[in-house]
Write a structure and sequence with these properties.
The complex is a heterotrimer of chains A (about 500), B (about 625) and C (about 100).
Chain A lengths: L3 H16 L4 H24 L9 E9 L4 E7 L1 H19 L7 H20 L3 H10 L1 H11 L4 H34 L6 H6 L4 H18 L8 H8 L2 H26 L1 H6 L1 H21 L3 H20 L4 H32 L10 H4 L1 H14 L6 H16 L1 H26 L16 H19 L2 H21 L3 H10 L7
Antiparallel strand pairs in A: 1-2
Chain B lengths: L1 H20 L7 H24 L6 E11 L2 E9 L1 H24 L6 H20 L3 H19 L6 H32 L4 H7 L5 H18 L7 H5 L5 H10 L4 H8 L1 H4 L3 H24 L3 H21 L3 H28 L17 H15 L5 H15 L3 H26 L5 H4 L8 H16 L4 H8 L15 H24 L11 H7 L4 H47 L7 H21 L3
Antiparallel strand pairs in B: 1-2
Helix pairs in contact in B: 1-2, 1-4, 2-3, 2-4, 3-4, 3-10, 3-15, 3-20, 4-5, 5-6, 6-8, 8-11, 10-15, 11-15, 13-14, 13-18, 14-15, 14-17, 14-18, 15-16, 15-17, 15-20, 16-18, 16-20, 17-18, 17-22, 18-22
Chain C lengths: L4 H21 L3 H26 L3 H31 L13
Classes of the chains: A mainly alpha (about 500), B mainly alpha (about 625), C mainly alpha (about 100).
């Protein structure tokens, strides 16, 4: 079991290499089989994961450049476990739901490579390795958008690549400086995340390092005002690209906050709580309003993603177990729900070649099953209790409430605005009478699409009712994270803040 | 006993899922039968619990932990204590009747199976709402009924008005839900739990400001569900849904959830009488405000909807003034007589091919005797005439207002009682008596199926007799609710009762007299007050003009101008600047040797200057 | 008036500037060679003068080296120039644009 993580990371890539020699017709089956095996592997990982251990498990270290302390170092805790499962699951689902595409073979191989990078990002415990996978994940995505996208795909792909790449470079500077600091403090070179998490950094240096990492993560999330690449990327990407982008790639940014920003720079995290929370609230409200103004179904969901990511960021910077656990759960639930919604838009796009709301209306008549599934996902997206969307949103908001009731109230308007844009879109495209004759003869969801969507629905309901198996391991790891932050923080203020936000009533 | 609780709770969802299997198939009577039967079972189980549960026998069930994170743990746990059992019985009684009724009403509807699935899902949510033993469970039901209400109002989704009303109801309720969530957050961070027992045990130890805030925010949630001003507009629009839905959701059960919340959290509200008084004031205001709109409306269902709103106001007065058991009592009697009133209206609509304008009806009594009778009885109950149910509960509320020395509130309620009597009988007169206006429009009214009438009968009987159980009701629910006895507070209660009764009878007589003599002068319709009332005080228009339209404009502006031009423009500006700089400086690398030599010299000079003058 | 180090160095600077001006202004490759030769010899003068001033032979030695290098450079350069002329019938500097991007 020791090398199961390495298997998880490299199996899809190996399979992708092998995929080149398989004939075109069988590659779809091959791809689904590979991702299914990968998903089963990740489930096996969960099965052998001990939820009572809060620290890193399945750790594997192979020295790469030992004079600089760069190792192949992987391991997971409760936080990354479910993000890995999410990655493997959504990749599998997106391949199952994949519609007919030109040069399908290349696409599937690309997706398999992408899967490697996604799992790699979440499993890495070495910063250089993390950075490697982080940057590598851009390449397949660039290729997917640029080669299979819509009419403005080149612009969108380049914007996506350069924007996130620029952010990552700033982060790289931060990484190098942090490594230098580590060398200064201990006399040895190390890029190990657990070691870095132990390192105490002076407060003013923390601020700069935090900012450097923040830029890299914020662009990926994407946080306001760095979000403008996302509508283009989603607007132009093929369905499978949007699904993976929304479901997993965005989560890398928020994962970065939890893995790097909080434990490495606790004082800076507390220091920057308010400005970040303001940005997050702007994200929630402002992008929700923009989503309402959209005329394209996919753009509505793209902007709604940004809005939900705002809640995730807010919950993360609540700096208490409720908020962070909520954020991580929301990452998972948003991955499932937004992935499903993008897939659903893909369903109608495959049939009609358009995704403008105005072209539809009355779809519930011709596609009742589709309308039902869409409604379920919509309700999960607006955070109805007993769906997966509620748990995370509720926890993230309740977590931040302790930090600032007023800001939580503002962010809470997101649940109203979310209902407004989602329901308006649903009403305009599904309700009413059929105005366009082309919509009358549309066929309902077919078997392939159902196979992809039904597991998502099942998860939305099951994890909405019984989220405990997921919440528990996350909770343990997050508690450890918070106690480490408290231990490591140097300012008295920080300690008090952390204690305060983690206590019921007044902290003593 | 636990198993009865679980049966009562889960029977409706089983029915709903069963009906959902047939969701996209053509009508199948079996869905109606199965869901109704399962609701019957749920009703029996609830009734059995009613006989079992008392102060010492409270049934509690805990299923499993739902959410857990940090300090926050919440299980799925349910309770059957006197209050929730009363609610359970009320809900299941009305819903069973409505289910059976719907089998007739929706007989020719294409979405028959879908309808029953939604309807049973609604009952399930409502049961969760009343049976949960923690605030978050209540919130599940709270949102669940909102969802089902959305689905059912929008049942005829091909109608623009229906889907619009569904969205309005959902969104407006969400506004209130945010308030409720904030209330829950306050409770959690001060007490550390959302379970009723723990919260109520520790609420006394919190400082007054916190409790006040929590109470206010919880009440904001109640305002949305119970459609109190200013979140009331959705209720009248919700009448776009099928009539049985209006009877069940928008009269008997869901809209009373707000009242239930205040009753359930009485230990919080009792600590802050100021908030309670505010609730009572708002309730009295809504009672009168809604009654006034009902006076002039010509839409059969909207009149009843406004009367619901008005009666909800009454309930809030009682709850706000601390007479929780009276609020609950009125909630129950109102559920019976209002649902039967709606169901009667449904019969009328059926007979009139879904016509709603009461001005186009008249004289229906000759062809629909039984429906007419039921509606007259229900209207009498609504008007608070002895010995019908409304008399007992409504009078009790008026007495409470008087006993608390809230004379202004009492006066408002008293006037509203008169208005209620008047508009109820205006409706009865215009629909069932007088000239047969419908002949002009070629309608051919007919009585509905017998089994539908039979389904209404139990409710009608309850509307008549349930008032007599007031004493037993009081002693039952005050086992856990605070006692409130009017009669110790005021002497001359009989005079008050007589005054109210006289006003109500007066209102009825006036309506009967006026409308048997041709109604009011048309000129009245030109007056300002008439226009104000018929336009619902211009509130929906104001919402549209001052909230919806600005929001739409602001959104479009934010998208086109801020996001596209400023935010994205800045990003693109950086990119184009870099690109242009490259484009411009490309000329340096022209490959022309002499130019390159010149640049070399420039570089040389720069380096020399640096070497000479730069001293670090 | 004695002719001192300063005068040699000024002469060297003037010659170098003339050479530099020629390099910048001339388009004829042959004249460019002349100009570079002038620059090299300006440097030579400077080296010899400074060497003499310090009584050190290294300066003169270096000047010889430069003369030798310059001679070989001219030999190779002129050869290339002749080849270029044969191929393009011109020795204009601006004709050397084969690698223009």
């Amino acid at each position: 079991m020791d090398s199961i993580l390495s298997m998880l990371i490299f199996f899809p890539a190996m399979a992708a290499m092998l995929g080149f020699v398989i004939e075109k017709e069988n590659l779809r089956t091959y791809g689904i089989a590979i991702t299914a095996v990968e998903f089963v592997l990740s489930l096996a990982l969960w099965a052998s994961f001990d939820p009572n251990i809060a620290g890193y498990q399945f750790v594997q270290v192979v020295p790469l450049i030992s004079q600089f302390g760069i190792n192949y170092h992987v391991g997971i805790d409760g936080i990354s476990l479910f993000l890995i499962i999410l990655s493997t699951f959504m990749t599998m689902i997106s391949l199952i739901g994949l519609g007919d595409m030109k040069s399908e073979k290349n696409l599937i191989v690309t997706v398999l490579f992408l899967e490697m990078t996604m799992v790699g990002v979440f499993a890495s415990l070495d910063v250089i390795l993390f950075y490697l996978f982080w940057e590598l994940s851009l390449v397949p995505m660039l290729y997917i958008i640029g080669a299979w996208g819509g009419p403005k795909r080149i612009y969108a792909a380049i914007k996506f690549f350069l924007y996130t790449f620029a952010g990552s470079l700033v982060m790289l500077v931060g990484i190098l400086y942090m490594a230098y600091l580590y060398h200064q403090a201990t006399g040895v070179w190390s890029f190990s995340i657990p070691a870095w998490q132990e390192l105490v950094v002076a407060f003013d240096v923390q601020l700069w390092l935090f900012a450097a990492f923040f830029i890299g993560f914020a662009i990926k999330v994407p946080m306001f005002p760095f979000h403008t690449w996302l509508p283009y990327a989603h607007g132009q990407a093929p369905t499978i690209g949007s699904v993976i982008l929304a479901a997993v790639l965005l989560k890398m940014g928020t994962y970065g906050f939890v893995r790097f920003s909080l434990p490495m720079f606790p004082d800076a995290a507390v220091y920057f709580t308010t400005p970040i929370a303001i940005l997050a609230i702007i994200m929630v409200i402002y992008t929700a309003m923009i989503a309402f103004a959209q005329k394209d179904m996919k753009q509505v969901i793209a902007y709604s993603s940004v809005s939900h990511m705002g809640i995730i960021v807010l919950g993360t910077f609540a700096l208490n177990a409720e908020g962070i656990v909520g954020s991580i759960f929301l990452m998972i639930s948003h991955g499932i729900v937004s992935g499903a919604l993008f897939m659903l838009v893909g369903v109608i796009y495959d049939r009609r070649g358009t995704k403008m709301i105005a072209d539809f209306g009355g779809l519930a008549h011709s596609m009742p099953r589709y309308a039902t599934i869409f409604a379920i996902m919509l309700m999960a997206s607006v955070g109805l209790p007993l769906t997966i969307g509620f748990v995370g949103e509720f926890l993230a908001l309740i977590g931040f409430f302790k930090v600032s009731p007023f800001m939580t109230f503002l962010a809470g308007t997101g649940i109203i605005l979310g209902a407004i844009y989602m329901l308006s879109m649903y009403k305009d495209s599904f309700f009413g009478v059929i105005t366009n004759e082309k919509n009358r003869i549309l066929s309902d969801v077919n078997k392939r699409e159902l196979t992809a969507l039904v597991p998502l629905i099942a998860l939305v309901v099951i994890l909405g009712i019984y989220p405990k198996p997921v919440l528990e391991p996350i909770n343990n790891s997050v508690k450890l994270l918070i106690s480490n932050m408290e231990k490591k923080s140097q300012n008295h203020e920080t300690k008090r803040h952390l204690k305060n936000v983690n206590t019921i009533g007044e902290a003593k | 006993m636990e198993k009865y609780l679980l049966i009562a709770l889960f029977a409706p969802i089983v029915g709903s899922l069963f009906a959902a299997i047939f969701g996209d198939r053509p009508k199948n009577v079996i869905t109606g039968i199965v869901t109704s039967a399962l609701l019957g079972i749920s009703f029996l189980a609830s009734f059995y619990l009613l006989t079992y549960v008392d102060e010492t026998h409270i049934v509690k069930v805990e299923l499993f932990t739902w959410i857990l994170a940090g300090n926050f743990t919440i299980p799925f746990n349910f309770i059957a204590d006197p209050v929730s059992v009363i609610m359970m019985v009320t809900v299941t009684t009305v819903s069973t009747a409505v289910h059976v009724y719907s089998m007739g009403y929706m007989a020719n509807d294409k979405g028959y199976n879908r309808y029953f699935s939604y309807l049973s899902a609604f009952v399930f949510s409502m049961m969760i709402l009343v049976m949960s033993n923690n605030f978050l469970g209540l919130f599940i039901g709270w949102e669940g009924v909102g969802l089902c209400s959305w689905l059912l109002i929008g049942h005829w989704y091909h109608k623009h008005s229906a889907s619009w009303a569904a969205n309005e109801a959902f969104i407006m309720n969400r506004v209130a839900d945010l308030g409720m969530l904030v209330g829950l957050f306050i409770l959690f961070w001060n007490i550390g739990s959302l379970e009723y027992d723990v919260v109520f045990e520790n609420i006394g130890s919190l400082d007054n400001d916190t409790v006040t805030l929590a109470a206010i925010f919880l009440f904001v949630g109640a305002m949305g569900k119970s459609a109190q001003f200013p979140l009331h507009t959705w209720l009248a629009d919700a009448m776009e849904g099928p009539t049985p839905v209006s009877a069940l959701i928008h009269a008997a059960t869901m809209v009373t959830a707000g009242v239930y919340l205040v009753i359930r959290a009485n230990e919080i509200f009792a600590l802050v009488p100021d908030v309670g008084f505010f609730i009572a004031c708002l309730g009295a205001f809504v009672a009168m405000f809604a009654a006034s709109m009902a006076l002039v409306n010509n839409d059969l269902k909207r009149i009843i909807a406004y009367s619901t709103l008005s009666q909800l106001g009454y309930m809030f007065v009682a709850a706000g003034l601390g007479a929780y058991w009276i609020a609950l009592f009125h909630l129950m009697t109102h559920a019976f007589f209002k649902s039967v009133l709606f169901l009667g209206a449904g019969n009328v609509m059926h007979a009139m091919d879904d016509e709603l304008n009461i001005k186009k009806m008249g004289g229906l009594n000759s062809s629909m005797k039984y429906t007419g009778l039921i509606m007259i009885l229900a209207s009498l109950a609504l008007s608070g005439i002895f010995p019908f149910a409304g008399f007992f509960s409504k009078d009790a509320i008026l007495e409470v207002a008087f006993a608390e020395h809230a004379y202004i509130l009492w006066a408002m309620l008293w006037v509203s009682a008169g208005l209620t009597a008047f508009y109820s009988f205006r409706l009865v007169m215009l629909v069932f008596f007088g000239k047969k206006e419908h002949k002009k429009f070629g309608f051919n009214p007919h009585e509905t199926y017998t089994f539908v009438l039979l389904a209404m009968t139990p409710l009608a009987i309850l509307a008549i007799v349930s008032g007599f159980f007031g004493g037993a009701f009081e002693s039952y629910v005050t086992q856990i609710l605070p006692h409130y006895d009017n009669h110790h507070h005021i002497s001359g209660a009989a005079i008050l009762i007589a005054m109210t009764l006289a006003l109500a009878i007066g209102g009825i007589m006036f309506a009967v007299y006026k409308y048997s003599n041709g109604g009011f002068d048309k000129k009245l319709e030109q007056t300002f007050i008439y226009k104000l009332l018929i336009n619902q005080y211009y509130i929906p228009e104001a919402y549209d003009r001052f909230l919806v339209q600005p929001f739409t404009r602001a959104s479009t502006y934010a998208w086109l101008n801020i996001d596209n031009k400023i935010v994205d423009g800045t990003v693109d500006l950086i990119a184009t600047t870099i690109y242009k700089t490259g484009d411009k400086t490309r000329a340096m690398q022209s490959g022309n040797l002499s130019k390159m030599l010149r640049w070399m010299v420039v570089g040389l000079v720069v380096l020399l200057t640096l070497a000479l003058f730069y001293r670090p | 008036m004695d002719i001192g180090l300063t005068h040699y160095l000024v002469l060297s600077t003037i010659l170098f500037s003339i050479g530099l001006y020629g390099v910048l202004k001339r388009k004829n490759l042959l004249l460019l060679f002349f100009s570079t030769e002038i620059m090299l010899n300006a440097v030579n003068i400077g080296l010899v003068a400074v060497g003499n001033h310090y009584g050190d032979l290294t300066g003169q030695m270096f000047a010889f080296f430069i003369i030798a290098v310059a001679a070989s450079e001219v030999a190779v350069g002129l050869g290339l120039l002749v080849l270029w002329y044969r191929k393009h019938q011109t020795i204009d500097l601006d004709s050397l644009q084969d690698m223009k991007g």
